[in-house]
Amino acid sequence: MTDLSVTGSQMQVKAPPPPTPISEPFRITTNAPHQINDETLSPGRRRLQKWLGRVLRIKISDGRILVGFFNCTDRDANIVLSMCAEYLVEGEGQEPRLLGNVMVPGKHIVSLNIDEPKPASSSLFL
Predict the structure, then answer these.
(1) Rounded to whole angstroms, how far apart are CA atoms 31 and 53?
(2) pTM for the whole thing?
(3) Under a CB-based contact definition with an 8 Å cutoff, are residues 118 and 91 in contact?
(4) Which domains does the chain carry?
(5) What does the DSSP assignment read for 8-33?
(6) In this predicted model, what pLDDT tens digit does every residue of 34-69 receive, in sequence order?
(7) Backbone φ, ψ for residue 108 (5° rounding)
């Protein structure tokens, strides 16, 4: 976008200022990169920071399973998941309902697991 200014019979076009360089790309895995190795943080807060951006599986009090990327939490243990999918019963072979961004109230959380990729079979290395 350019600024136009008219002075007398001349029209001057001012170039926009150059864009400010981005020093570091956006990362979803942490919300406080300067605090990752901060020794003053409690072990629980350090663990929560490591979980940011990872896939969580949450079982809620009505039996549903919610799976999505962990975005944030608060003092009441409410959890926000992005790209969340809902499963009505535990197990495989069912179609999930895609929900998008979800806030799960902490009072309804029964269990919480981090979904890890399945390790490679150890029989391949024998």
Answers:
(1) 10
(2) 0.62
(3) no
(4) 28-115 (2.30.30.100)
(5) TTEEEEEPPPPPPPPSS---SS-S-G
(6) 555 667 788 888 888 888 899 999 999 999 999 999
(7) -100, 0
